[in-house]
Predict the 3D structure of the following.
Amino acid sequence: MIILGLDPHPTTHTAVALDSRGVVLDSLSVKNDADGLNQLWAWSARFEEHCWAIEGAGNRYVALLLALLFANDQSVYHIHPSLTSQYRARRGKKKNDLVDAENVARVLCWPTRNSRPTSSASSVPVCRNCPARGTSWLSSAKRTR
């Protein structure tokens, strides 16, 4: 399972792809507009089996991306922004979008109760193909709309 971590902003989105061992496979930064979302979608299609980890998935800056992902039946996780800073602090790295996107993905490599599946409809299970390690928290996680 490939995890695509996303650090969203009003004008740009930065994404990082991690494999199941936590190795960075690729990264991409795009503008937060229709062309950028198309580039991001095309980039994600390179990874056959994947899910999305998005920092602050309830953030208004990712609404168009979420609509695209849900319309295409993608698995999406909301990662609380405080977890990104915790990972960054532990790894001794300075803040930047690429580091944050990587750390968002790492939260799913080592899940905690603070990452929640997100869905467009609360009854839809979002991560049907979650990473195997540490997925027991999914059954008790709250879904958000």
About this structure: DSSP finds four helices and six strands in the chain. The chain has a mean pLDDT of 76. Residues 2-140 form a domain with the Nucleotidyltransferase; domain 5 fold (CATH 3.30.420.10).
